[in-house]
Design goal:
The complex is a heterodimer of chains A (about 110) and B (about 110). Helix content of chain A is about 0%, strand content about 55%. With about 110 residues, chain A is mostly beta strands. Chain B has no helices and eleven strands. At the A-B interface, strand 6 and strand 11 of A face strand 5, strand 9 and strand 10 of B.
Chain lengths: ~110, ~110
């Protein structure tokens, strides 16, 4: 069955440090992959998506993600985090017109 | 464009009461979704619709009903609310597999 795994429930990073959030998926065909961000008390916002082509995709707010088929991964990165990046991040894979969601990773920023 | 809007933002119900949550989108999207989000459970799909007049069950449909009489609106009904339905409810819409757009959420407390 298709699934998405985000192995880290929480990650703490110092402001200004680099960030990598992990996402692994299980999907037979070429996946449509997404990262969403949810700030406290807010809805989910689409950060970036991958369908095909260049395996490094750029998103909003300075985030990028790299699709690695051999590792079934789609990790999210940011070179330097800001306090405003504190939020929960969700990875998802499209199955027909539904999304299979990871459990989320909560990002905590240390001042 | 307002995007996806949800009404109400917050509601308190007593066990056994009924209510309807309204989702509206102005992006002419075919697909609409209702999710619930609970701590530690991530996002779970309740019902979805692939077009006007159509609905389908998601992962956790019991206790909920939906209707999509107009393309821009997707209603979620609770006929007899239970404390287990205390949650944050999100509506989303999409045009294709290229990502879903979320509303701000409705916080529901069932006493």
């Amino acid at each position: 069955a298709q699934s998405v795994t985000q192995p880290d429930i929480h990650i703490t990073v110092s402001e200004g440090a680099s960030l990598e959030l992990r996402c692994n998926y299980s999907y037979g065909a070429t996946p449509y992959l997404f990262w969403y961000v949810q700030s406290p008390g807010q809805g989910l916002q689409l950060l970036l998506k991958y369908f095909s082509g260049d395996t490094l995709v750029q998103g909003i707010k300075g985030f990028e993600a790299e699709f690695k088929r051999s590792q079934s991964s789609f990790n999210l990165r940011k070179p330097s985090v800001h306090w405003s990046d504190a939020a929960e991040y969700f990875c998802a894979v499209a199955l027909n017109y539904q999304l299979i969601w990871g459990a989320g990773t909560k990002l905590i920023i240390k001042p | 464009n307002a995007g996806v809007t949800q009404t109400p933002k917050f509601r308190v119900l007593k066990t056994g009461q009924s209510m309807t949550l309204l989702c509206a989108q102005d992006m002419n999207h075919e697909y609409m979704y209702w999710y619930r989000q609970d701590p530690g459970m991530g996002l779970r799909l309740i019902h979805y619709s692939v077009g006007e007049g159509t609905t389908a069950k998601g992962e956790v449909p019991d206790g909920y009903n939906v209707s999509r009489l107009k393309k821009q609106n997707f209603l979620l009904g609770l006929e007899s609310a239970a404390p287990s339905q205390t949650s944050v409810y999100f509506c989303a819409s999409s045009y294709s597999r290229e990502g879903q757009y979320f509303g701000p959420g409705t916080r529901l407390l069932v006493l």
